[in-house]
Amino acid sequence: MNSDEVLWVVARAAGLASFFALSISLLSGLALRTAVLDWVGSNRALRSLHEYTAVLWIPLGLIHLVALLFDRTARLTPLDLVIPFRAPYGAWAIGMGTLALELFVLVAVTGWLKKRIRAGLWQWLHRLAYVGFGLLFVHATLAGSDFSDPVVSALTWSVAASLAVLSLARAVFGRLPA
Q1: Is the pTM of this model over 0.85?
Q2: pLDDT tens across 99-113, in order?
Q3: How big, in percent rounded to 5, are the helix, strand and coil portions of the chain?
Q4: What are the sequence ranges of the domains in the chain?
C-alpha cells in the first residue's frame, strides 16, 4: 500500500468517525430536549455523551481534512476547505462538506461562548447544527465512497430517520423546560 492509499484510508475512517460522532451528538442533544423522551431528559450520562461527541468530531474532522490535503489523488487545496464548490472534481459534493464544516465550526464556537451570547441568539445558532447535518449527509452520501457499503448506508439512513422522527416528535409534543 503506497502513501496515497494510506492517506485515503485514514481520510475515509476519520470522515466516517467524525460523521458518527456528530450524529450521536445531534441525537443525544435532541433526545435531551424532546418531551417524548422525557424519561431521558435529566440523564447526566446522556448530557455528557452529547457534550463529548460535540467536541470529538473536531479532531476526527481535522484528520479527515489533513489526510485529504496530503493525498495527491484527492487534489484538494487548503482553499477548497474554506471556499465551497471550488474543488477540481465533485464540486457539489465536496462543497456541501465545506459548508457543513463551516456551520459546525460556528455551532461549536458559539457553544463555547454560550454564557456570553443572548439565549435566543444562541438557540438559533445552535439549531444550525441540523442544517449542518443535512449538508453533511449530502456530502457523505455523494462524496463518501464507503456509503455504498450496506452497513454504512443502513447506519447513515437510520441516523437521518431517527433525527427526523425525534424532530417531528419535538415539534408535535413540545420540548422540556430549560
Answers
A1: yes
A2: 999 999 999 999 999
A3: 80, 0, 20
A4: 3-81+88-173
